[in-house]
Amino acid sequence: xxxxxxxxxxxxxxxxxxxxxxxxxxxxxxxxxxxxxxxxxxxxxxxxxxxxxxxxxxxxxxxxxxxxxxxxxxxxxxxxxxxxxxxxxxxxxxxxxxxxxxxxxxxxxxxxxxxxxxxxxxxxxxxxxxxxxxxxxxxxxxxxxxxxxxxxxxxxxxxxxxxxxxxxxxxxxxxxxxxxxxxxxxxxxxxxxxxxxxxxxxxxxxxxxxxxxxxxxxxxxxxxxxxxxxxxxxxxxxxxxxxxxxxxxxxxxxxxxxxxxxxxxxxxxxxxxxxxxxxxxxxxxxxxxxxxxxxxx
Length: 297
Fold this sequence. Notes:
Residues 1-31 form the signal peptide. One of its GO terms (molecular function) is isomerase activity. This is Xylose isomerase domain protein TIM barrel. By secondary structure, this protein is α/β, with parallel strands linked by helices. 43% of the residues lie in helices and 14% in strands.
């Protein structure tokens, strides 16, 4: 069609299409940099000594920094009712807690589920498997069985069970990666993953590959940084913060935009700052919060 043959209707249709395309292009370009973390959380293990010395005062400081969510690793003698009251006083919520592996035992687990319900938590996370219980393939199979059983029981109470990794899950055991074994052997609805984005990096894994293979399995992530990749082993003494050069979020080598751009695929709902051994805990979580609260992707 020549230009002269183009009637008004055709021109308007063409112009509208071009305008819409231009708008959508600019809209998506804008949206690509408009994603942010709505509620930045913090794992209170980072300030464990401060929590022990001043439970209520530490929560107040966390809230004053700007954090909205906290993940507990112990309650320092407080009852679930006292913990909930302290959270409400400071305008905080606790979506999750960390519990030792032995508390998953049938005689211990129901009380932990009830405690989480009182506090208002949606997730209970096991953050560590004792070294003697993860030596062989059969050991990891037993762990998966324990996780499935615990997850089934918590699910009945409306609470999701999850597992938090370190680095050793990404180092082969008899030619297999323990993390892969857990994702395969654990029921995807009963056992979710709280991926520690620093430790998977230290272990040589790539979060995005797991997001692609297991979409929606990672509702929580630990967000911490590292200055350089250290040498790690499957077991033995690992001095977090000593042999591993951890850093406040944004001051290390991890590409956060690359990872968070896949948040929807991963199923991430909670972004939780952690540093295992900061020299100055409150300064560390302040620096991490300031970086993440301004981050756009």
